[in-house]
Amino acid sequence: MRRGGGIEAAGPLASLRWMLCLVLAALFLSAAPGTGVAATNHPFQGTITGEKIGLFEQFKDACGVTTDSAGDIYVADYYQNRVAVFNSKEEFLTMITGISPLDSGGVAAIDGPCDLAVDSAGNLYVNDYHRDVVRFVPAVYPPAKGTAYGPKETIDTAHPTGVAVDPASGDVYVDERTSVALYKAPVLPGDVPAQRIGVGNLVDGYGVAVSSFPGAGEYPSTAGFVYVADAATNSVKVYNPAGDLVNPVDVIEGEATPRAGFKSLVDTDLAIDPGDGHLYLADNLHPHFESPEAIVYEFSSKGNYRGQLPNPAAEGEPSFLRDGEPSGIAVGAGGRIYITSGNFENAAVFVFGPAPAVPTHALSVTKTGPGTGSVASSPPGLRCGSACEGEFEQTANVTLFATPDRGSRLAGFSGCDQKLTPNSCTVAMGVDHAVTAEFEPAPQETLTVAKAGPGAGTVASLPTGIECGGSCSDDFDEGSTVTLTATAAAGSRLAAWSGCDSQPTANSCKVTMAAARGVTARFEALPGEEEVVVNPGPGRAPIPTVGLPAPTPPAGLRIGRATVKGATATLRVTVPRPGQLSASGRGLRSAAVTTFRAGETTLSLRLTGAGRRALARAKRHKLAVKVTVAFAPFDEGATLRAAKAVTFKQGGRKR
């Protein structure tokens, strides 16, 4: 994550910090896996920090990492505009800054390096973040202590977000957001792409990786397959350029992970293990945590979920990977995995060893019948579309859970080892399993809601279906429980419910749909006020209201002041009635809040990774963002919109 902040002193304090970090890491990694977390068992082997360069010098954001065929490790140091090279023993070899006599005033030719790739000749490709891909050629290869690299050669200027090299052919792949550009080897400055992959299919690509897995046993070869993360769809798209340049052969959406999907693939990175074809992918902005906030998922060459790194306790919360936007991942010799972590005072590369080989078996679930529904597994790992499949360790006992869609019910499982409940069963994964889940239509009963009394308000249901005003009647599954919630309008209050089975709160009631049901919500005017009718003019219907003998029409949407703190802000907004309030803007994360009454409310605004990078580079470290606010009222009135410029300010010391 590109953001400013104070830079703590290096040296003994930094060493103490890292000792504490390693202790915490060991505790997380030694803890028993939490419920439902698949263990990939990659042993934690230590860290590579800027202090290994000498002079007790920390990385100031290890933004990218790659390895070469000699086992050397290359680490992008984003804020210090350089790439550090270490040998396979993690001993510092040399520094690449791109400084050349041809550069005016000796200015560094690298500016914000992140994604890296190395070809078989040792040529280093650097993605200067979101601007271009440049190349540096070593004087000798493999690099030795103090090896010099030549001046930069520009390869691609299409504002790319990732670069990869096919180890077999030497071809270079550059992620240009809406397509992947393929440069055929030998690549020369000034070359144009020989092919473009994913045109018309890829929307917002981040990172790119190329497989060289030759296949083994039941796992077919994926050599030449191109993997790219699409942040617009929160999925990984897998292309086989030898067969189809546009349509992916697979789309990995993360539905088999413990979180049932990816949270944010903006500024992610991904890598492929050439030994087994496994995919490693960083999911950024881990929910509910600011720091740590990244998790790295592992998938088999078939796209099936296999686990996550590191292997922490309690559903992977927290991992000890910090500030994972962007994240860098590389798979080196012997299956060692390198993952970047941190920003400024905590930046490093975490190193994991290969996981021991564990036999797995396949589990497939076919959904049949005229009804519909979904099937999930514990531990996670079941990847479902029209059918479901997954890979589980042979010692695992997997529980399957069926969740019928509304209007359907589970008729039954077949192929399980044991039935647990009407909607669940277990299978022992000592062998491959094929299970069938049959869904059938469920009987329906009608729930009708009436509103009574001189007051005003709305009633909504969970499951959804009733929203008054709107529909006040809908069908629900027989035997299901429906929760109704009343929201009084301004100047009114909910007086009473009738027809409910129970009332867990004053404003809600529950109804069991054993038969057709009817419920009434009575609203009354607040004490001391009475309903009056306003004549809005000729040809228009009278407007009922409460109190205010000469009321004015409802006020519009008003934006107040913004309180800014670095890359975040709190915006005050006044709304005329209950509804959904949202905010959007370039470089701004989408924000939304539901308000159940008229008056002032607040929206929390936060810059995206790209927005924070723009803030870091902005003049005087101030960035003005046009924030568009939209308000959709519950009463189905027209959506209201307004705009305001909010100026974000970089906090801490400047780069």
Question: How is this structure best summarized?
Answer:
This protein has 655 residues and is mainly beta. The strands form 13 sheets. A five-stranded mixed sheet has the order 27-28-25-33-30, with no helix packed on it. Strands 1-24-23-22 form a four-stranded antiparallel sheet, with helices on one face.
Layout of SSEs?
Layout: H1 12-30, E1 44-48, E2 62-67, E3 73-77, E4 82-86, E5 92-96, E6 113-118, E7 124-128, E8 132-136, E9 153-156, E10 162-165, E11 172-175, E12 180-183, E13 195-197, E14 205-210, E15 226-230, E16 235-239, E17 250-252, E18 270-272, E19 279-283, E20 295-299, E21 305-309, E22 329-331, E23 337-341, E24 348-352, E25 360-368, E26 373-378, E27 383-384, E28 387-393, E29 397-404, E30 408-414, E31 418-421, E32 424-428, E33 433-441, E34 444-452, E35 457-462, E36 467-468, E37 473-477, E38 481-488, E39 492-498, E40 508-512, E41 517-525, E42 531-534, E43 543-546, E44 558-565, E45 568-575, E46 579-585, E47 588-595, E48 599-606, H2 609-617, E49 622-633, E50 640-649
Parallel strand pairs: 25-33, 34-41
Antiparallel strand pairs: 1-24, 2-3, 3-4, 4-5, 6-7, 7-8, 8-9, 10-11, 11-12, 12-13, 14-15, 15-16, 16-17, 18-19, 19-20, 20-21, 22-23, 23-24, 25-28, 26-29, 27-28, 29-32, 30-33, 31-32, 34-37, 35-36, 35-38, 38-40, 39-41, 42-43, 44-45, 45-48, 46-47, 46-49, 49-50
